[in-house]
Input
Amino acid sequence: MIRVVVADDHPIVRSGIVALLQDADDIDVVGQASDGRAAVSVVLAERPDVVLMDLRMPELDGDAATAEILAAEPGVRVLILTTYESDDQILAAIEAGATGYLLKAAPESEILAGVRATARGETALAPSAAAALVRRATGGIPTGPSLTPRELEVLQLVAQGNSNPAIGRALFLSETTVKTHLGHVFEKLGVNDRTRAVTRAMELRLFP
Output
């Protein structure tokens, strides 16, 4: 049996991941954590084979938690499972010692295969993660996650100093819809505020 700990701060997402894993005959979920600090504690107590680790969590981010876990228990393997896929986040996780990096949007079969591969000591990488490593190896220019045309329009208006109501008027959207688009932008770019979203987009050359 592959003994697994699942670390994710979203209860519904975490329960879905646990349910997926528990349906597999060869996987046993031996612990759960809702933040990075708790993840370290649970892993040190349970000593699982694999940790499924989200990146952005309270108390301690996934990459920092990964580094702490592996410093204490080098035999544990960490598989990042997240919605975030910017080059910086991918590389930080790999550099912290993660064995693999998959996206939550991946098919269930791919996630299960990733857990099994990680348990065997193999590398499980989403295409975006593999591409990031290639770009670093070849000195290529980092590229960020793909924003939809509407998300990019909203972010460009933010960069011009427009408020949410003003953006809504310009694009004929409700203020709620503008907030929803910005929420998606923040999640994709791995940021928490408008200013950092704009600067991150500039760093990644997302603006024309």
Summary: The longest helix spans residues 175-189. The chain has a mean pLDDT of 86. The two ends are 50 Å apart (CA to CA).
